[in-house]
Amino acid sequence: MQVLVLGAGQLARMMALAAAPLNIKTIAFDVNSESIVEPITQTKLGSGLAAAIEQADVITAEFEHVPHPVLDACQASGKLLPSATAIKTGGDRRIEKALLDKANVANAKYALIRTRQDFEQAIEYVGLPMVLKSTLGGYDGKGQWRLKEASQVDAIWAEMEQCIASSAAQAIIAEEFVAFDREVSLIGARNQHGEIAVYPLAENVHTDGVLSLSTAIDEPQLQAQAKQMFTAVAECLDYVGVLALEFFDVKGQLMVNEIAPRVHNSGHWTQQGAETCQFENHMRAVCGLPLGSTEALRPTAMINILGEDTLAQEILSMKQAHIHWYGKDKRPGRKMGHINVCGNSPADLQQQLQDIAQWLDASAFPALHQK
Ligand code: ATP
Ligand code: MG
């Protein structure tokens, strides 16, 4: 079995690492250079989409911003899972919001903006403060504005107008600002028979719009809500593969912020913390194999390594810390790797996180030092 992943970054790499023990071979297609590469070593294997599709038994994606002609060609081959429709939904906040409404899951009140008049009407309808997001191309908090008071309208409109003008398909979504208590996410898998398995929720801390810390939590009431919403969304899309839902927790009531039609950064903890990791379960789902157990093995958290390419050697000696580098060149703020930390109990996990914090720079790992 050979799986082609659209995108050749760390998610493709970790899918390949998880697939190998199942005798599933993975190749990756870099959509920018059109190169076919080995996802772990980045060795070039060939080039061109047609050749990549030809070699694959199954095609999947590591990100939702795949150019539509690429998705359409893969869909036409009959090998793409999840479907082009599901991937496009994750890449366009307009379609995503319509899906959330169709699936009848709670999400922030919103309005669509293409003109200054739309903007004025959105302010009336949604109210201030509001969050404004480009409908296409946003990630890690990029392509967003926060509108708190009327005096900011002209300056923000000037930037939004440029963004809208960049592409005929581009627009802005205005969302009510949700005063959440915390952010959580649910990662789960659905296979071709419609079977669903979800992991425990993770609680997520973002720093400057980028995920910095994810901790698996055991909260049955919240978990049940999240699973119901996951099932509604996954069934609406007839989804196959791993899917992530990001939520706002507002006093114990969940609202979906966004979906990601792929393995997700807030699910990396499953590599050490769950019976089967998200990467293996994605490969199982798209290859038509039974899903692996999503049960948690022990309390686990994940720390993102942003913009650093070295860590203190002492961390390697810690019994319950596991480092995963992505083999990428260092750039400020770039996701370079992550550390999964396990504990024997939730309190022990917090202790482990404090122990590891002493080896990690407070400015580079603020979420850990705030604990
Ligand atoms: P990523 O790809 O990293 O998940 P993104 O760029 O797709 O991020 P969002 O997840 O929509 O964007 O937003 C980034 C962060 O901004 C959220 O995790 C949340 O902290 C905050 N945020 C987004 N929407 C709202 C909202 N309506 N109200 C309050 N905060 C929000
Ligand atoms: Mg997000």
TrEMBL record:
Q: Name one GO biological process term.
A: 'de novo' IMP biosynthetic process
Domain ATP-grasp, chain residue ranges per copy? 97-287
- Looking at the keywords, is Ligase present? yes
Q: What is its EC number?
A: 6.3.4.18
SUPFAM superfamilies for this protein: Glutathione synthetase ATP-binding domain-like (SSF56059), PreATP-grasp domain (SSF52440), Rudiment single hybrid motif (SSF51246)
| Catalysis performed (reactions) | 5-amino-1-(5-phospho-beta-D-ribosyl)imidazole + hydrogencarbonate + ATP = 5-carboxyamino-1-(5-phospho-D-ribosyl)imidazole + ADP + phosphate + 2 H(+)
Write the record's keywords in alphabetical order, separated by commas: ATP-binding, Ligase, Nucleotide-binding, Purine biosynthesis, Signal
* Binding sites annotated in the UniProt record for ATP: 93, 133, 138-144, 175-178, 183, 206, 257-258
Which pathway is this protein engaged in? Purine metabolism; IMP biosynthesis via de novo pathway; 5-amino-1-(5-phospho-D-ribosyl)imidazole-4-carboxylate from 5-amino-1-(5-phospho-D-ribosyl)imidazole (N5-CAIR route): step 1/2
From the UniProt record, which GO molecular function terms apply?
Answer: 5-(carboxyamino)imidazole ribonucleotide synthase activity; ATP binding; metal ion binding; phosphoribosylaminoimidazole carboxylase activity
Q: Which GO terms describe its cellular component?
A: cytosol
Give the range the annotation lists for the signal sequence.
1-18
- The protein's superkingdom reads Bacteria
- Role noted for this protein: Catalyzes the ATP-dependent conversion of 5-aminoimidazole ribonucleotide (AIR) and HCO(3)(-) to N5-carboxyaminoimidazole ribonucleotide (N5-CAIR).
What does the record note on quaternary structure?
A: Homodimer.
Q: What is this protein called?
A: N5-carboxyaminoimidazole ribonucleotide synthase
Please give the organism.
Vibrio ezurae NBRC 102218
